[in-house]
Amino acid sequence: MKEKDTLAGKFWQKWVEGRDDYEAFSHLYNLYINDLLSYGISLGFSEETCRDAAHDVFFKVFTEKKRLSAVKKPTAYLFRSFRNHLLNIQKRQHRFAPDFTFETYPFTTEITILDNLIDQEEAQRLKNIIKELLEELTPRQREAIYLRYMQEMEYEDIAALLNMNANSARRLVSRGIDNLRNKAINGDQLSFDVWLLWLLFASSKF
Length: 206
Description:
Blueprint: H1 2-17, H2 22-42, H3 47-63, H4 74-92, H5 120-134, H6 139-150, H7 155-162, H8 166-186, H9 190-201
Family: Belongs to the sigma-70 factor family. ECF subfamily.
Pfam family, one: Sigma70_r4_2
Protein name: Sigma-70 family RNA polymerase sigma factor
Protein backbone atom coordinates (compact mmCIF):
# COMPACT_ATOMS: atom_id res chain seq x y z
CA MET A 1 0.00 0.00 0.00
CA LYS A 2 2.90 2.38 0.67
CA GLU A 3 4.05 1.90 -2.91
CA LYS A 4 0.49 2.46 -4.07
CA ASP A 5 0.22 5.66 -2.02
CA THR A 6 3.45 6.93 -3.54
CA LEU A 7 2.21 6.17 -7.03
CA ALA A 8 -1.18 7.72 -6.31
CA GLY A 9 0.47 10.85 -4.94
CA LYS A 10 2.47 11.19 -8.12
CA PHE A 11 -0.59 10.88 -10.36
CA TRP A 12 -2.65 13.13 -8.08
CA GLN A 13 -0.05 15.88 -8.24
CA LYS A 14 0.22 15.60 -12.01
CA TRP A 15 -3.55 15.88 -12.33
CA VAL A 16 -4.41 18.68 -9.89
CA GLU A 17 -1.33 20.84 -10.40
CA GLY A 18 -0.57 20.36 -14.07
CA ARG A 19 -2.38 20.59 -17.34
CA ASP A 20 -5.22 18.25 -18.23
CA ASP A 21 -3.21 15.05 -17.87
CA TYR A 22 -5.99 12.59 -18.66
CA GLU A 23 -3.62 9.66 -18.41
CA ALA A 24 -2.83 10.57 -14.79
CA PHE A 25 -6.55 10.86 -14.03
CA SER A 26 -7.16 7.45 -15.60
CA HIS A 27 -4.42 5.92 -13.47
CA LEU A 28 -5.98 7.41 -10.33
CA TYR A 29 -9.37 5.98 -11.24
CA ASN A 30 -7.95 2.52 -11.91
CA LEU A 31 -5.91 2.56 -8.70
CA TYR A 32 -8.89 3.27 -6.45
CA ILE A 33 -12.14 2.19 -8.06
CA ASN A 34 -12.06 -1.43 -6.84
CA ASP A 35 -10.99 -0.45 -3.31
CA LEU A 36 -13.80 2.08 -3.07
CA LEU A 37 -16.38 -0.40 -4.34
CA SER A 38 -15.16 -3.03 -1.87
CA TYR A 39 -15.35 -0.53 0.99
CA GLY A 40 -18.85 0.60 0.06
CA ILE A 41 -20.15 -2.94 -0.31
CA SER A 42 -18.63 -3.76 3.09
CA LEU A 43 -20.69 -0.91 4.52
CA GLY A 44 -23.79 -2.69 3.22
CA PHE A 45 -24.53 -0.70 0.07
CA SER A 46 -25.36 -2.20 -3.31
CA GLU A 47 -22.73 -2.29 -6.03
CA GLU A 48 -24.86 0.06 -8.13
CA THR A 49 -25.05 2.62 -5.33
CA CYS A 50 -21.31 2.29 -4.73
CA ARG A 51 -20.56 2.88 -8.40
CA ASP A 52 -22.78 5.96 -8.41
CA ALA A 53 -20.98 7.35 -5.36
CA ALA A 54 -17.53 6.54 -6.76
CA HIS A 55 -18.35 8.19 -10.07
CA ASP A 56 -19.60 11.27 -8.21
CA VAL A 57 -16.28 11.46 -6.38
CA PHE A 58 -14.19 11.12 -9.52
CA PHE A 59 -16.41 13.59 -11.38
CA LYS A 60 -15.59 16.14 -8.68
CA VAL A 61 -11.88 15.33 -8.95
CA PHE A 62 -12.16 15.80 -12.71
CA THR A 63 -14.10 19.07 -12.69
CA GLU A 64 -12.76 20.79 -9.56
CA LYS A 65 -9.10 19.86 -9.60
CA LYS A 66 -7.88 23.42 -8.95
CA ARG A 67 -9.67 23.37 -5.60
CA LEU A 68 -7.97 20.10 -4.66
CA SER A 69 -4.35 21.22 -4.91
CA ALA A 70 -4.11 21.41 -1.10
CA VAL A 71 -4.97 17.71 -0.73
CA LYS A 72 -1.78 15.85 0.18
CA LYS A 73 -3.24 12.41 0.91
CA PRO A 74 -5.40 11.29 -2.01
CA THR A 75 -6.27 7.94 -0.40
CA ALA A 76 -7.75 9.56 2.70
CA TYR A 77 -9.50 12.23 0.63
CA LEU A 78 -11.08 9.76 -1.81
CA PHE A 79 -12.30 7.38 0.89
CA ARG A 80 -13.79 10.18 2.96
CA SER A 81 -15.47 11.79 -0.06
CA PHE A 82 -16.79 8.40 -1.14
CA ARG A 83 -18.20 7.69 2.32
CA ASN A 84 -19.92 11.09 2.39
CA HIS A 85 -21.36 10.55 -1.09
CA LEU A 86 -22.84 7.22 -0.01
CA LEU A 87 -24.55 8.97 2.86
CA ASN A 88 -25.87 11.72 0.59
CA ILE A 89 -27.18 9.24 -1.97
CA GLN A 90 -29.08 7.32 0.68
CA LYS A 91 -30.57 10.49 2.13
CA ARG A 92 -31.70 11.60 -1.34
CA GLN A 93 -33.38 8.25 -1.81
CA HIS A 94 -35.13 8.68 1.58
CA ARG A 95 -34.04 5.24 2.66
CA PHE A 96 -32.82 6.54 6.00
CA ALA A 97 -33.84 9.31 8.34
CA PRO A 98 -32.14 12.69 7.73
CA ASP A 99 -29.99 12.21 10.83
CA PHE A 100 -28.70 8.79 9.70
CA THR A 101 -25.01 8.14 10.39
CA PHE A 102 -22.67 5.17 9.98
CA GLU A 103 -22.16 4.83 13.74
CA THR A 104 -24.18 1.63 14.12
CA TYR A 105 -24.45 0.60 10.48
CA PRO A 106 -23.33 -3.03 10.07
CA PHE A 107 -19.91 -3.45 8.49
CA THR A 108 -19.08 -6.75 6.81
CA THR A 109 -16.25 -7.87 4.59
CA GLU A 110 -15.40 -11.00 2.64
CA ILE A 111 -12.28 -12.91 3.69
CA THR A 112 -10.75 -13.40 0.25
CA ILE A 113 -7.06 -13.63 1.14
CA LEU A 114 -7.60 -17.28 2.10
CA ASP A 115 -8.52 -18.27 -1.43
CA ASN A 116 -4.95 -17.92 -2.62
CA LEU A 117 -3.34 -19.66 0.35
CA ILE A 118 -5.14 -22.95 0.95
CA ASP A 119 -7.57 -25.37 -0.67
CA GLN A 120 -11.24 -24.50 -1.03
CA GLU A 121 -12.57 -26.68 1.79
CA GLU A 122 -10.00 -25.43 4.28
CA ALA A 123 -10.55 -21.84 3.14
CA GLN A 124 -14.28 -22.10 3.76
CA ARG A 125 -13.70 -23.64 7.19
CA LEU A 126 -11.43 -20.79 8.25
CA LYS A 127 -13.67 -18.16 6.66
CA ASN A 128 -16.54 -19.34 8.82
CA ILE A 129 -14.41 -19.14 11.96
CA ILE A 130 -13.07 -15.68 11.09
CA LYS A 131 -16.61 -14.51 10.35
CA GLU A 132 -17.71 -15.65 13.80
CA LEU A 133 -14.77 -13.84 15.37
CA LEU A 134 -15.47 -10.61 13.48
CA GLU A 135 -19.10 -10.71 14.58
CA GLU A 136 -17.83 -10.28 18.14
CA LEU A 137 -16.67 -6.77 17.20
CA THR A 138 -18.74 -3.63 16.92
CA PRO A 139 -19.39 -2.30 13.39
CA ARG A 140 -16.99 0.58 14.09
CA GLN A 141 -14.24 -1.80 15.19
CA ARG A 142 -14.71 -3.91 12.06
CA GLU A 143 -14.56 -0.83 9.86
CA ALA A 144 -11.49 0.57 11.60
CA ILE A 145 -9.65 -2.76 11.38
CA TYR A 146 -10.59 -3.04 7.70
CA LEU A 147 -9.19 0.42 7.00
CA ARG A 148 -6.03 -0.24 9.01
CA TYR A 149 -5.11 -3.70 7.78
CA MET A 150 -6.85 -4.12 4.43
CA GLN A 151 -6.37 -0.55 3.20
CA GLU A 152 -3.26 0.10 5.35
CA MET A 153 -4.37 3.59 6.34
CA GLU A 154 -2.58 5.65 8.96
CA TYR A 155 -4.47 6.23 12.21
CA GLU A 156 -4.74 9.95 11.44
CA ASP A 157 -6.54 9.15 8.18
CA ILE A 158 -8.82 6.59 9.83
CA ALA A 159 -9.66 9.19 12.46
CA ALA A 160 -10.59 11.77 9.83
CA LEU A 161 -12.75 9.24 8.02
CA LEU A 162 -14.58 8.13 11.17
CA ASN A 163 -14.82 11.61 12.72
CA MET A 164 -12.63 11.00 15.77
CA ASN A 165 -9.12 11.85 16.91
CA ALA A 166 -6.10 9.68 16.13
CA ASN A 167 -5.81 8.32 19.68
CA SER A 168 -9.44 7.20 19.59
CA ALA A 169 -8.86 5.49 16.25
CA ARG A 170 -5.82 3.70 17.64
CA ARG A 171 -7.76 2.56 20.71
CA LEU A 172 -10.65 1.41 18.53
CA VAL A 173 -8.36 -0.81 16.47
CA SER A 174 -6.39 -2.00 19.50
CA ARG A 175 -9.50 -3.04 21.41
CA GLY A 176 -10.85 -4.80 18.36
CA ILE A 177 -7.61 -6.75 17.95
CA ASP A 178 -7.61 -7.59 21.67
CA ASN A 179 -11.17 -8.90 21.37
CA LEU A 180 -10.20 -11.06 18.40
CA ARG A 181 -7.11 -12.36 20.19
CA ASN A 182 -9.01 -13.21 23.36
CA LYS A 183 -11.80 -14.90 21.44
CA ALA A 184 -9.31 -16.94 19.41
CA ILE A 185 -7.31 -18.01 22.46
CA ASN A 186 -10.42 -18.94 24.45
CA GLY A 187 -12.13 -20.67 21.54
CA ASP A 188 -11.70 -24.16 20.15
CA GLN A 189 -8.47 -25.52 18.70
CA LEU A 190 -9.37 -24.35 15.19
CA SER A 191 -8.98 -20.78 16.35
CA PHE A 192 -5.22 -21.25 16.53
CA ASP A 193 -5.22 -21.69 12.74
CA VAL A 194 -7.15 -18.45 12.39
CA TRP A 195 -4.82 -16.52 14.65
CA LEU A 196 -1.78 -17.87 12.82
CA LEU A 197 -3.34 -16.79 9.52
CA TRP A 198 -4.07 -13.35 10.96
CA LEU A 199 -0.42 -13.00 11.91
CA LEU A 200 0.60 -13.68 8.32
CA PHE A 201 -0.84 -10.42 7.05
CA ALA A 202 -1.64 -8.24 10.05
CA SER A 203 0.78 -8.52 12.96
CA SER A 204 3.62 -6.71 11.23
CA LYS A 205 1.47 -3.58 11.07
CA PHE A 206 0.59 -3.27 14.79
